[in-house]
From TrEMBL:
Pfam families: Pyridoxal_deC (PF00282). Keywords: Decarboxylase, Lyase, Pyridoxal phosphate. Coiled coil: none annotated. This is Pyridoxal-dependent decarboxylase. The lineage of its organism: Bacteria, Bacillati, Actinomycetota, Actinomycetes, Propionibacteriales.
Length: 488
């Protein structure tokens, strides 16, 4: 034993906070967040910086000697805040919301404080078992089939994103359809086919690329021009044609709320159309799925009993700080069959007993955070009634916006509002539509994003921030009206 061992083995390391300092700085960090939220209403929603502006405020190299943590907090205000687009701003209506919430943030902080790696059950049993229970709770709350629960053949897992969940679904489908061949020999030249509508999220193509199928393996299926939902007869014809050509239908992506317009593919009809070929049915409800906590907002999930896998993102509209994407499978054997790996250094009695779930076999990566804590914190502190109230408020505000659009003859709805998403345009055309949106975004009053529907530009207004009120949507609408008037 070396003689000079001391009670403070880290004496030589500067920068470690003492427990007292950690408490002090922790309070300051939470104070900073609370002050930031309080300031949001007066800040421009979209970042006002040009490329490089933020970089230029930072030194070229890391400091040689440690600085106090207060210096980092001070630079958040000086360097970071001006370069932020404020996703938690009450007038953020672009893309889809990325809800954070006080409970989720504290849960996330606790997860960091615990700092456990939950790669297998044995590396921290609570990380796995809390996650299983919380996902069972959420599956029940959303009205998902019994088969998806952890006490049945399936189960749920938290993924980082819906993109990863869709990739994982594709790997599971490959394993099942190839009888294990895919994991042994790869997929080269096997003629696999993946289907999704023209409105399927881009993560489907990315998954096909990552799985080694290539983007040409994805066959896009036309949609009904009015609803933007997949044309199921066209899907059926495409599968029949592919089978006739010697190709192998593998997976169909069902958009239960498309990203562009919130279009809802008919899950039951899609599953029925591909049933003869045993195609894996993956329901992508990344944004809209969580609305099913409200029994009256479950219609778009009708037929989900026929799905092989299902993903929805509490990190979009369910108040759970990014990242938290919840993914369920009907049969976990396909998933673990595709991804299980057991290196010698992870061998343990619990795994060998077969009595535990090792989540490393449920997604591409090995290591994993204790993300269940933040979802647990959200589910417990809001309760299902609190979450329902949040979803209902988003839907009500979107209905209000849709009414305002319909009442102004300069504007028109492009599609029927879907839950909390309203898609509309100026009758004057694409240029006027884009110019009005850009005027509002540039003013900092609110932030909206665009899409194209049947080749024409449209504005998307997605309600869902936890801080948005009726006054916020009305103020945004007035800004849009003024922008439209300025063009006339
Ligand atoms: C947002 C979205 C995704 C991607 O979500 P990530 O979690 O960012 O990967 C996938 N599908 C749909 C329908 C989405 O709206």
């Amino acid at each position: 034993m070396p003689e000079e061992s001391t009670d403070q083995p880290s004496d030589a390391i500067t920068g470690h906070m003492s427990p007292e300092e950690f408490r002090r700085q922790g309070h300051a960090a939470i104070d900073w967040i609370a002050d930031y939220w309080a300031s949001l209403d007066d800040l421009p929603v979209r970042a006002q910086v040009a490329p490089g502006d933020v970089r230029h405020l930072l030194p070229a190299s890391a400091p040689e000697d440690g600085e106090p943590f207060d210096a980092v907090l001070a630079d958040l205000d000086r360097v970071v805040v001006p370069g932020l687009t404020h996703w938690q701003h009450p007038r953020f209506f672009a893309y889809f919301p990325a809800n954070s919430s006080p409970a989720a943030i504290l849960g996330d902080l606790l997860s960091s404080g615990i700092g456990a790696q939950g790669m297998i059950w044995a590396t921290s049993p609570a990380v796995t078992e809390v996650e299983q229970v919380v996902l069972d709770w959420l599956a029940e709350a959303l009205g998902l089939p019994e088969a998806f629960r952890s006490d049945g053949p399936g189960g749920g897992v938290i993924q980082d994103t819906a993109s990863t969940a869709t990739f994982t679904a594709l790997l599971s489908a490959l394993h099942r359809a190839s009888g294990g061949e895919a994991r042994r020999h790869g997929v080269g030249g096997a003629g696999w086919r993946v289907y999704g509508s023209t409105q399927a999220h881009s993560s489907l193509v990315k998954a096909a690329i990552m799985a080694g199928l290539g983007e040409d393996a994805v066959r896009t299926v036309a949609v009904d021009p009015a609803t933007q939902a997949m044309d199921v007869d066209t899907l059926h014809d495409a599968v029949v044609e592919d089978v006739g050509a010697g190709l192998r239908p593998l997976l169909v992506h069902v958009a239960a709320g498309s990203t562009s317009t919130g279009a809802m593919d008919d899950i039951a009809a899609v599953a029925e159309a591909v049933r003869p070929w045993g195609v894996w049915v993956h329901v992508d409800a990344a944004w809209a799925g969580v609305a099913a906590v409200c029994p009256e907002h479950r219609e778009h999930l009708a037929g989900v009993e026929a799905a092989d896998s299902f993903v929805t993102n509490p990190h979009k509209w369910l108040l759970t700080t990014f990242d938290c994407s919840t993914f369920w499978v009907r049969d976990r054997a396909a998933l673990t069959g595709a991804l299980s790996i057991l290196p010698e250094y992870l061998r343990n009695a619990a795994t060998e007993s077969g009595e535990v779930v090792d989540y490393r076999d449920w997604h591409p990566q090995l290591g994993r955070r204790f993300r269940a804590v933040k979802l647990w914190a959200v589910l417990r502190t809001y309760g299902l009634n609190g979450l329902r109230a949040h979803i209902r408020s988003g839907v009500d505000l979107a209905d209000h916006v849709a009414g305002l659009v319909a009442a102004d003859e300069r504007f028109e709805l492009v599609t029927e509002p879907a839950l909390s998403l309203v898609v509309f345009r100026l009758r004057a055309g694409d240029e006027a539509t884009m110019a009005a949106m850009e005027a509002v975004n540039a003013s900092g009053e609110a932030y909206l994003s665009h899409t194209t529907v049947e080749g024409r530009a449209a504005i998307r207004l997605a309600v869902g921030s936890w801080r948005t009120t009726r006054a916020d949507v009305e103020r945004t609408w007035r800004a849009l009206q003024e922008a439209a008037a300025a063009q006339a």
